[in-house]
Amino acid sequence: MKQLVRTFALVFVAAFALMILASYLNKSQGYSGGNTLTIYNWGDYIDPELLKEFEAETGMKVIYQTFDSNEAMLTKIEQGGTTFDVAIPSEYAISKMKEENLLVPIDHSKLPNLKNIDARFLNLNYDPNNQFSIPYFWGTVGIVYNPELVGDLTFDSWNDLWDPRLKNQILLLDGAREVIGMGLNSLGYSLNDTNEDHLQAALKKLSTLTPNVRAIVGDEIKMLLANEEAAVGLVWSGDASEIMDENDKLDYKVPEEGSNLWFDSMVIPKTAKNVEGAHQFINFMLDPDHAARNAEYVGYSTPNAEALKLLPEDISQDERFYPDETLTSKLEVYNNLGKKMLSHYNDLFLEFKMHSK
């Protein structure tokens, strides 16, 4: 028994020593909270050269991790197993994070570059006074189409999608808010509508679209549309930009009834170990030159008014991705519908998908 106890004690001491050694090595290599910045972002959603420049400028080591959905990001932050200093969720996820006390308030006095953000994109309903979030990119939901394959259809209206000439030619995003929202908008309703009669009317109308729906897909929608596997796709504007870079025959339109205005924003999660560094990074990304370069690399629309002036005119003057106020006034940010209503939206979407098979 004594030998067993002695052996256990030796193993415990060795394990403890290894923990101390690992901690020392992490600190010596830049992995302590104060000189490390851990960023949690969507994949391929930042110019990697900017991360290198931030490291060189601040002496911090950047650890960059990615997620593929707001839900995956929320789950990981809620679990708290990994600490993130900066995350970049979408607006409805920010609302949820606020409700669950998962965010650190942002100190605007540490962000002198905040003045560069277009006032249109500040103080929105999902985060009044930008207490917890700073806009990173923004965009719309609309229609990518191949003019050579759709005849005289221009998609000025969502209702063009129901044209019988598009039989088996439409790809849809695999997203409940996007598809149910499209159905609501096509009827003149808000994409945040919770009126059950309106929701059922949208579902009924969507069910009549199924002959035209080729597939409901995820990220592969970009490749499929670029390769002309379908004539039309419901996509986010950033994806539309990528698709059109691959195939310049394609075009993008936000229908006149309105659509979604989305934001991805920089936040500081509650478990952050380097709050000071997080503020430094956010301010770094708000620099006009950095924001302009990031917008060119990623292909999404920048909310940074000063950065917009630095972009080539073929980007900054492209109203498909920087629409005028006539259109933006008809766009809506997704409201946080609450768990019950969001679950109902998901159920309606599932019913539509099953009907589409």
From TrEMBL:
Which stretches are annotated as coiled coil?
none
Q: Which domain of life is it from?
A: Bacteria
Q: CDD domains, from UniProt?
A: PBP2_PotD_PotF_like_2
Q: Where in the cell is it found?
A: Periplasm
Matching InterPro entries: SBP, Sperm_putr-bd
What are the alphabetically sorted keywords of the record?
Answer: Periplasm, Signal, Transport
The protein's name: Spermidine/putrescine ABC transporter substrate-binding protein
